[in-house]
Specification:
Distance between the termini: 29 Å
Helix content: over 70%
Number of helices: 7
Strand content: under 5%
Shape: globular
Radius of gyration: 13 Å
Order of helices and strands: HHHHHHH
Structural class: mainly alpha
Low-confidence stretches: none
Number of strands: 0
């Protein structure tokens, strides 16, 4: 399930546990199921891979495409985390960043200060 994939990646990244083979497997499985991911699962997966320092270009491309289509469903924290993750891992996604910028501008009042700062930084 997408939530289990996202949560597993998040947990290993949050703990700083090196698990490159696990992250490779999660990337492959997530790419195949990306259409089933909820916005928070997309953001958490991107955050986990960036935090873990695991570049997964195909996964990030899939996350970018899916996120662009559902950007209006993201919570402000998800927008901030997604922007942070793509910038941190060095993945260029101009269309995604345009969508994040537009959505963030419309909902600027609902951002927490740290989320707003992270989005601006990215």
């Amino acid at each position: 399930k997408p939530q289990e994939l996202a949560n597993t990646a998040w947990a290993f990244a949050a703990l700083g546990v090196p698990a490159p083979q696990l992250f490779d497997a999660i990337a492959c499985e997530s790419e195949q199921r990306i259409g089933s991911f909820k916005p928070q699962e997309l953001a958490n997966t991107a955050w986990a891979f960036a935090t873990h320092g695991m570049p997964a270009p195909e996964l990030f491309d899939a996350i970018a495409r899916e996120s662009e289509q559902r950007i209006g469903s993201f919570k402000p924290q998800g927008l901030a985390n997604t922007a942070w993750a793509f910038t941190t891992i060095g993945m260029r996604a101009p269309q995604l960043f345009d969508a994040i910028a537009r959505e963030s501008e419309q909902r600027i009042d609902s951002f927490m200060p740290q989320g707003l700062a992270n989005t601006a930084w990215a």
